[in-house]
Specification:
10 helices; 308 residues; Dihydrodipicolinate Reductase, domain 2; alpha/beta; 35% helix; 2 domains; globular; 21% strand; seven-stranded mixed sheet
Length: 308
């Protein structure tokens, strides 16, 4: 039994169609080396063969906006069928991965599949629009839609998740990342919010040349988040407690992506949300609140972002 997966789309600077497909299918060395994603090629070729494959998933179909790009993707990641239009996947695949991080494309691409009952994984961020979030929410609840950053499953945070790091009572949490808040803030939120016992209640922008935000949690813990723009790569989480400070630099993309895809496979098999719906909504509403706070320079309360 094989779960046939279609992979859809390509967005500038985002090689996830290649990395996700290679993790599921394995890869053709010459094809991936020639594809123009040297970072992905370098980290996948360091992995043992046993680490490839995710359950019974198999990427069988691919579409991107450019037929030459689609051909490159198929050659690199052993995908047998290239299609000219996304709708050609309807009736041909059992699940879909939309591997674009330009959120405005997500609903138009996903809707035909969700409305046909096909499970869909959508790359981060799912949306920056409350109306779209209202549309997507019922599909999350039915176990048809999953969306998150791979940093939710970062290997580097395993010791904290397992309770093997005792910092004492948390006082401050910091997250620091490259690029802009709109596309990359979700990485920090998906990494940090699952580590905490409370929920976000408000977001405030800080005076800085880059995107700098403070999230107030329901238990009073402060979460400081900084998207530094075009700087050398940094994906860092710091947890500051009364007794110790924990610092975690997240660098293992392969493991976080493979875990994310495994969770999506389990969601398909079990027909239930891999991530609690409230947790996904907390991330996205905090992301949207942060964008509004940066624009208006005022504190934004999450309870004002109602999607009911």
């Amino acid at each position: 039994m094989v779960t046939r997966v279609g992979i859809l789309g390509m967005s500038e600077g985002n090689g996830h169609p290649y990395s996700f497909s290679a993790i599921i299918n394995g890869y053709h060395d010459e094809g991936l080396r020639a594809a123009g994603w040297p970072g992905i090629y370098d980290y996948v070729r360091r992995r043992h063969g046993s680490e490839f494959g995710v359950g019974d998933l198999r990427v069988t179909h691919a579409w991107t906006q450019d037929p030459e790009q689609t051909a490159s993707l198929c050659a690199a990641c052993r995908i047998p069928c290239a299609v000219i239009h996304p709708d050609e996947l309807l009736g041909e695949v059992d699940a879909v991965i939309i591997a674009r991080d330009d959120h405005a494309s997500h609903r138009p691409l996903a809707a035909p599949f969700l409305e046909s009952g096909v499970p869909v994984f959508i790359d981060k961020p799912l949306t920056m629009d409350l109306g779209e979030l209202r549309y997507f929410s019922p599909y999350m609840e039915r176990g048809l839609l999953m969306s998150c950053s791979g940093m939710r499953y970062a290997r580097e945070l395993d010791t904290w998740r397992a309770g093997q790091v005792d910092l004492g009572d948390l006082m401050l949490v910091r997250g620091t990342i490259v690029n802009d808040w709109e596309r990359y803030g979700v990485h920090l939120l998906d990494a940090i919010l699952p580590l905490l016992d409370s929920r976000p209640v408000a977001v405030r922008a800080q005076p800085a040349a880059h995107a700098s935000l403070t999230v107030t949690m329901s238990d009073g813990v402060m979460v400081q988040l900084d998207a530094l723009g075009d700087v050398p790569g940094i994906f860092r989480v710091e947890l500051m407690g009364e007794r110790r400070v924990g610092r975690f630099d997240i660098v293992d993309n392969f493991s976080m992506f493979r875990r994310t895809l495994w969770e999506f496979w389990r969601q398909i098999v079990e027909v239930r949300p891999a991530i609690p719906v409230d947790a996904t909504l907390d991330v996205l509403r905090t992301l949207i609140a942060g964008q509004r706070a940066l624009q208006d320079r005022q504190e934004v309360a999450l309870h004002d972002l109602d999607i009911s």
